[in-house]
Amino acid sequence: MKEITGLTVFELSSLLQRGELSAVETAKAYLAQIQRRENVVGAYLTVTEETALLQAERVDALRQKGEALPPLAGVPMALKDNLCTRGIPTTCASRMLEGYTPLYDAFVVEKLQEQQTVLLGKLNMDEFAMGSSNESSSFRVTRNPRDPDRVPGGSSGGSAAAVAAEEAAFSLGSDTGGSLRQPAAFCGVVGLRPTYGAVSRYGMVPFASSLDQIGPLARDIRDCGMVMNAIMGQDKRDATSLPHDCADCNARLEEGVKGVRIALPKELFGEEIVPDVKQVVLRAAGRLEGLGAHVEEVSLPSLAHALPAYCVLSSAEASSNLARFDGIRYGVRTGEEEEDDCIATRTAGFGNEVKRRILLGTLLTSAGQHELYQKALRVRRLVKEDFQRVLRDFDVLLSPVSPNTAHRLGERRRNPAQLYRGDLCTVPASLAGLPALSLPCGEDGEGLPVGLQLMGRAFDEGLLLRCGYALEQSMVGKGEKDCARV
Amino acid sequence: MKQDTDYNNTKQTPVDVDRLAQLARLSVPPTQRETLERELEDLLAFLSQLEQVDTDMPKADPPAAVYNIFREDMVTPSLLREELLEGASGAMGEFFHVPGGTGQGEGEKS
What we know:
The complex is a heterodimer.
Chain A: H1 9-17, H2 23-41, E1 44-47, H3 49-64, E2 76-80, H4 107-114, E3 118-123, H5 157-164, E4 170-175, H6 181-187, E5 190-193, E6 213-218, H7 221-231, E7 261-265, H8 275-290, E8 294-298, H9 306-321, H10 341-349, H11 352-364, H12 370-393, E9 396-400, H13 416-421, H14 427-432, E10 436-443, E11 449-456, H15 461-475
Parallel strand pairs in A: 2-3, 2-4, 7-8, 7-9
Antiparallel strand pairs in A: 1-3, 4-6, 5-6, 5-10, 9-11, 10-11
Chain B: H1 17-23, H2 30-47, H3 81-86, E1 91-92, E2 95-96
Antiparallel strand pairs in B: 1-2
């Protein structure tokens, strides 16, 4: 039998439901794994051992009483540290929120509590979710479990690393321009950015509100769908969450891809994509074709401008959102009770990357620059229209997740423009508000996982998972399925 | 991979970092000013490529359907004052303690 931490959520859930494994035993196995791996991986900012064991005991007690429990009851998981957890520190990996303990739970935390999952802790991230390597965290370095000399990606780097290192059965991350999909790709796990509005962001510390979404990271496609089923839903506390039927995302998982029309946007297979990545992704597309899908190259001309439009909009929104950190209502205050306390607090509390984005956003929303912001909004509309046009004739769009695989720690820290360009393939779905799935589809020449992205119609997460599952199953036994394992 | 010099032909707009910092309520030490200026000018040049895009349309729109979200106009439970003040950066009695904002000597100091 596999080690407990090597089991998928689906496998764990079955064993727990049949009483062949206790929730406490499971939690202890994960806590021991965290103890073993954290000195190398560094995925966690807070480990909630006591909470985890209490929650696990409660699940076992209920199960012993014969109560029917939800599918995720007793499954150990961890949360990105920008999701508010009552009584548990939530720092966004920033000095600004060091020691801050929220008074309420985020909507998704409530949802996971309803499922009676077991919380192992809070995960490292780029400060305020601004970054794509986890190197802008104010507190610690997170390493890629596949190669500890490399970054795990970001900003949900801790969320991806914890799942890849089997330090959590699943995790939640957030995705603004690819912050969940890219680390999933770098660490060789599955990540789903839901449709804009499918999951309430209540209790998530915002970065760019017209783009932010919360989503699951898991070892495989089925697990990812199970977690998505648990967290979606409308919530009156987030006015951008939309009514939808919350249908089971995994309902048609095993129906295959015969007849599914898959588009390959040529703008996302350009010279920016390194040859290894392009080759592995195209090979996976060929595999889907072999399984009966219709695969065809298409053009979405607006995607050539998606990245600068994203940079303008996300920076402008960030500068506005982060104005709330003033050292008054919560968080750290620096200074000597002088009128410039706020400036001292913000200057000491924010790291360099966050400051750069706030300044850029301030520049873009100041007098004389508003035309660029207007232009970015219009390009966003063009992107959305291009997707609408293609999705009339096709069911899914397929591309790489990132132009490259995980780079070495420190390699690009001094070159922000190059780091921003890593978001090339992920920002289009963010701008259009569409769901996008990131899954491992093979390895590059250095043995690093390559991520494949599937984008679809709004609220069509089920079809993305179905296509992903077909691809995942086609790799079983060919040595490539293992890229979802450490 | 595209090089950073790709957009060197686009116009360079001078960036006043001190002015931006003032607007953003940040302070930039002199040692970082030059680097930030260069980075922001580079980024602005990159973003300025948007000016060349033909966007002949009446207006932009958001990523999802837009309609009003109403709720009942009723008082609902909220967080407790004592709990909120415990998490405050500074508190005095039952109030948030706010740094003076009207200039030296104009407000009463605690």
